[in-house]
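Hey,

Quick one before I head out. I ran the complex with flavin-adenine dinucleotide overnight. Inputs first:
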Amino acid sequence: MEAISYERAGDVASALRAAQQPGTMYIGGGTNLLDLMKGGVARPMRLVDITHIGGLDTVASLPDGGLRIGALVRNSDAANHMAIRTQYPLLSQALLAGASAQLRNMATVGGNLMQRTRCPYFYDIAFDRCNKRTPGSGCAAIEGHNRTHAILGASAQCIAVNPSDMSVALAALDAVVRVVGPRGERVVPFAAFHRLPEDRPDTDTTLLPGELITAVDLPPPLFGDHAHYLKVRDRASYAFALVSVAAALQLDGRTIRQARIALGGVAHKPWRASVAEQMLSGQPLTDAALNRAAAAALRDARPQHDNAFKVQLAQRAIVRAVNLAAGGTGGVA
Ligand SMILES: Cc1cc2nc3c(=O)[nH]c(=O)nc-3n(C[C@H](O)[C@H](O)[C@H](O)COP(=O)(O)OP(=O)(O)OC[C@H]3O[C@@H](n4cnc5c(N)ncnc54)[C@H](O)[C@@H]3O)c2cc1C
C-alpha cells in the first residue's frame, strides 16, 4: 500500500502552488485518474482536488460572440447547456456519445481533455512493454492485438489512440484551450494541444508540468445548422469509438461554403481532415465529391495488422456524417 496525500484547492493560485511538488496530480471528476491509480498505471504521491475552485464551473458568452466553457463544467452540464445545444450542437452530440450518464455527471471538461488512451497494453501493467507507461520498454500493441489502434500519425514507439469524443468536436470547431501555470496564462490552439506519439508517447499533450486547464473557448458559432457527430463502435452505447467523425458545414443551397471534419479513434490525437475540408469547400455536395474527399482524408493511413478495416470504415463514416450534417442538425444516424 502506498500513502497518498490529498489536498483540496480553493483557488487557482493554491492549486498551482500545490502542484509544484513532485508527484502531484490534479484530480477533477476522478473517472479516469482513479481507474488508472487502481490499476497501478498512475502512481501520484499527492492529489490536488480542483473541483472546489470557484469560477471554473460556468459557461459564459465572450465579447466576440464565442463561448467560454470552464474546465470544471461537468460533461453532462456542458452537453445540456442551452447555448451549447443550440449553437454548438456538434459538441453537445459528441459529449452525449461518450461514456454513460453517471460518468458524464462526474467528468469535467478539463479531465476529458486529459483522459488517457484505452490501449489495453497501457492499461494492464501485467504487460511489460508500453512506451507510454514505461518509456523505452517497447510497444506490445504493434505485434499484439491492435484492432482498435491508430491508422494515422502513429510512430514505431506507439500506436495508441486518443479516446475522447468531446475532443473530436472541439478540434472541428477550432476551440482553444486556456491554461495557467507558474509562468502565467497561455492560450493553446486545439490542434496544438494533443500531440502525436513520435518518440515521446508518454506525453499526450503540450501541457507543461504543473499547468492547469482553466477553460475551453469556442469561436463564434458558424455551424449550428449543419452538424453531426457520428460514432461507430462495437456496442450501441458505453463503448469507445472505433472511428468517429465530427462533421459541420456551412451551406449555400447544396453548395458547401465551408466544411469542418475531424476524426476520432484513428490517431494519438483528434485528427483534423484538412485536405478533405479544402476539397469540399466551394463545391456542390455530390456523392462523387464526398467520396473523393473521404478517400483523400485517409490517403496517409498506415493500418496495423488487425485494423485495415478502419480505413474504409473511416471513409464511409465521413461520407455518412457529412451527408447527415447537410440534412440539418438533429438528423438521425
Ligand atoms: C467506463 C467508462 C467509459 C467511458 N467512455 C467514454 C467514451 O465513450 N468517450 C469518451 O470520450 N470518454 C469516455 N470515458 C472517459 C471519460 O470521459 C473520462 O474519464 C472523463 O472525461 C475524465 O474527466 P474527469 O474530470 O473525471 O478526469 P479525472 O479522472 O479527474 O482526470 C483525468 C486527468 O486529467 C487531469 N486533469 C483533470 N482536470 C484537469 C485540469 N483542469 N487541468 C489539468 N489537468 C487536469 C488529471 O490530473 C488526470 O491526469 C469513459 C470512462 C469510463 C470509466
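The chain has a mean pLDDT of 97.

Talk tomorrow,
K.
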